[in-house]
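Help!! Second protein's tokens look totally different from the first
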Amino acid sequence: MTDAAGRPRRGTKTSAFGVGKREGHDSSAFYERFHAPAISDDETVNAPSFLDDIVVGDARDMSRVADSSVALVVTSPPYFAGKAYEEAMGHGHIPANYVEYLQMLRDVFAECVRVLQPGGRIAVNVANLGRRPYRSLAADVTTILQDDLRLLLRGEVVWVKQRGAAGNCAWGSFQRPANPVLRDLTERVIIASKGRFDRAVDVNKRAADGLPSVSTMTRDEFMEVTVDVWEIPPESAARVGHPAPFPVALPERLIHMNTYEGELVLDPFMGSGTTAVAAVRTGRHFVGYDTDRGYRNAAMKRVAGERRLPQVQLPAKARRDGDPVATGWSSKELAKTVLAQAGFTDIDDKAVVMAGVQPTLAAVDRKGRRWWFEVVGGRTSNRPGAQRVELLW
């Protein structure tokens, strides 16, 4: 990296390629106030020992999963609440109290660290608990990952589940300062990495060695996922047959963001199989654990259903070095490819229905009928959905 005069910029502790004078964001002095974390140079990446299955068992023992074979752990631990949970507390693998619950999480996450590749990430979705008093499970999980297991924290995503919802007084006072209570409309996703900030093995060496090396993130998605507030509607518990599911879009974007196509994703609390579905949908492999055989069977059924869906094959673009790469696609380009593979012709991204009404795309089907398409939702710049009044009405 060079400056305007062509002189090489010096790297800093926070920027390997250096910064210009005007940017002036060398944070070395700030970081010197803290104890510097130990950064590993380990490049060990092992082949997975088994793929695409969910084990009925306790994730505190994941001995079937090889060391340093997992690229990403995505999970949403079971909540320490609910009637069924309370009835089973203290029996078998169910913790008897909150302290035991946190110890269980620590033991499971320690196994996750063992199986993660150097630089591999763990993303833990948690909801905070209680009202009297409020308990920050996110803070407790952060302590486990950072202080107990010595992982490198990478950030915390605020997952907004409901937008525009109003408060209420179900657990407190109404319009009075006696006991106002905040209503939860968000959850957290804590992200950390093992030993180093970058992934082990440079992408070019990965390609040369036959390791997964192709990224699958679109331009639109990259711009959206690299902020720490994500708006994703929640999943229906009734639809997936699990009391606390999280939406496929959540692990899906974490997978695109943190792994290469063909890598292994682990969920130690697989539950309804959402992480497995997201892995299949994004061209990754999965491994999961769950103590309930019924949930395991239901999850594998969801995976089988996902595999039956037709898959869109995107032509690879090329990097400057000529190697194929699946990145760089915008949501509009993806939509055009899908429409073409479905048999539509005359695909137009500049069509106008009438004055002031311009959808994203127009196309003609096999019967000669003209269709108008608005590209919204997951992996687009308009994730909340179809909200343009002139198109809806």
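Here's the second one for comparison:
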Amino acid sequence: MHLVVAYWGDPALLDLTMRSVLAQTDPRWRVTVIDDGYPDPAAQQTWGEHTDERISYQRNDVNLGVAGNFEKARQVAVADEDADLVAFLGSDDLLHPTYVANAWRVHEQHPDVDIVQLGVRVIDEAGEPADGLTERIKRALMPRGAGQHVLGGETLATSLLRGNWLYWPSLVFRREALGRVAFRADLPTILDLALVLDLVSGGSRLVVDPAVCFSYRRHAQSASSQGLHTGDRFDEDRRFFAESAGRMDAHGWPRAARAARRRWVSRLHALTLAPAALRLRSGDQLRAVARHALRR
């Protein structure tokens, strides 16, 4: 299993992520850190020449940005013919000791399924449990019922276009499947969902396994949340959903196309930002919120 970290950020958080990798009970992993030129040299000093031969470190000569570095991470993973499984870890998330073991367990149970969503616990910047509105909405959208759920086709596409309930850094992919898609440079804050939907449109299925073995760190100022406040994410979302509606129609998936046109969770997310815009007396943000929530 190849764990690829597209790194940019606090090196102390990266250290925590990497230590959680080293603590895995199942040794069938390797990890590559791809540093997108973060100014602090600490990551290179700590992980550039680590004694564990399963750890690799690369530093980009130029900053590629979010989409560019993720695409490089995908290419590095796909080129590793010794790895059957791939995960794109966040450089601030935490693996529980059984993460790799659970990934292999589910893969061995469903060897023909391309994507695995393992159980996730959400934490905040300080590492404390977090359960905000985003998490409550995701839980409401996720498949319900005990045990594993295997989804695919129009059912999965409709569900994800209604609202993205996946936790991207925890997902496990079959390496072979990742060779059929690429990250889109024009969708830096929604590139994860775009890639998953490309896979689903091509016939990939996803299995949800409830075993909690990953801690996802929810930051108040993530790349996507910053984009929301500037309006960039709104514009990107509308473009993506409009394009997806057309693709789903062409694919013969009318329910998925309808979910993309309605994009009700995306609209709701925008409305939750209206109180903050009012407090800041930001007319630009209020107009951006209203435009995104109300425009067809």
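Reply: Different proteins will give different token patterns, so don't panic. Confidence is low (pLDDT under 50) at residues 222-228.
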